[in-house]
User: What shape does this take?
Amino acid sequence: MSGTSGGAGRDGGSRGLFGDVRAQSETIGVVLILGMVVLGMTAVIGFGSQALDATEERSEFANAEQAMAQFDSKAAQVALGGSAVQSTTFGQTDGGYRVNGSKGWLRVDHFDHSGNNNTEVIANKTLGTVAYSNTGTEIAYQGGGVWRKDPAGEARMISPPEFHYRDATLTLPIVSVNGTDSAGGATTAVVDGSQDIPLYPNRSASYGFDGDPYDNPVDNGTVSVTVHSEYSAGWAEYFRTRTDGCVVTSDDTTTQVKNRCNIDDLSDFGIDIPSQDNTVSVYLLTPGTRGPFPMPGEGSAVDVRGLSGGHTLSEFNVTLRPDDTDSADFANLQWSMYAESGARQFEIHLRRQSGNDCSDTKVGVTVYYSGDGGETYQGWFGNRSYTTECFDSDGDGDDEAKLTADFVDDSDSDGNTTETDGTDPELNYTSLASSDLQHFNPSGAELLSSATIDEHAGSVGWESETYSSGSTEVIDRLLRHYLALMGPGIDLTVDDKNSDTISEDASSGVIRYPISGQYISFLHVTYDGIDVRLE
Assistant: This one.
């Protein structure tokens, strides 16, 4: 019994020993679980706090962007004369607001207006800013637009500035902020004190090189708008999307600009790479002649600039009067307009064919084009394409001859100048002799035996036609096509045989075409200063 009792005691002792171990394990397990729960909760709280902070920060910047956009709207009402005073309330934030009337500037230049490569500074104004800043990020109003700059200095546009370009017209109210206030938390911005000063057109101001008034249309040279700003990257992106002009930043190289703008010599257009950091310029070229024009003299040119892609020429005609010694019937008429660009050559030539007086003189027309410097060419000739008419130009009772040659027209006014309407002269595809032209000499060159007109096929309603000797085509189509190949910039130079078959002073022409987005015809610039204070 004693052994039994002792055995029982050993068994009981064993149970007690293992029972203590299990109790300790359970306690340690509970502690570990509680620790893991605490760590998990700490991590969740930490990550959750960071996420909450990030969400709050995003919300705060979104609210600041919305508030600045509202300020932009109110400031525009004052700056552009719609209201005398406006105010915007900025809500409670962790960041601060500041008005700085000395930040950034905008300059408008006109290069080569007078043909002497000089630059006229039309406007040079400080822009100023109203900015919200927090943790290195800025939301700012400048130049009538809203911009965002991150802590790394990268800037982008939130809403566009007061820069409006459409149909070759640039409207630029230079909105300039005046003030030095700063504030934190909930703030009200008050805008007043508007100034509206016309800078261009402005007939009381004139170019310093020739005395011409600041007036539209803008002719000759290049107009540029340059902005120096912390948000210049945003300005640059806006210029690129709003215009097809040549956009140049202070980070560019000469090679980059040449390739991007497709310009071999930047100095020809007054294009400079800004020397000051955070600066961007957009260059817009003047288109030259559009609409009615006086006929230039022998050796001078009608400058066509900005002829947009495809067959966009909508009207081209000339009205010629004879020289005094040849006033009866254009007896010696041999007159051309020609253009040359690189290896491309073009000429349209008018020559008397028959007739004895002003009412029945027949005039032939030749069209010549070469894309390889005259080694090969495409030639077209119409024998009696135009007829002169009688006209008493000097009021002396005696009629003189007048020739109106419609090269491109829309005789039925349906907007389509590529159709054959029965009145357009038809030309034959043929080889040409030196007497068929006035400027270029096709002798020794090869007429392309099969000429396919397909260079613009993706963008026009008529093309992809192949011609051989004897084929015919209307002059409207040919002129629209060849001048498009010569464009976008063309100098149509007058070549009058011996300078005595046409009186250029008494002659004229008309040329009409839409222009591409890198050109400018009308410029409207005003200075619109506003005072901003924070309350």
Remarks:
- Residues 164 and 270 are 23 Å apart (CA to CA).
- The first helix runs from residue 2 to 79.
- The radius of gyration is 38 Å.
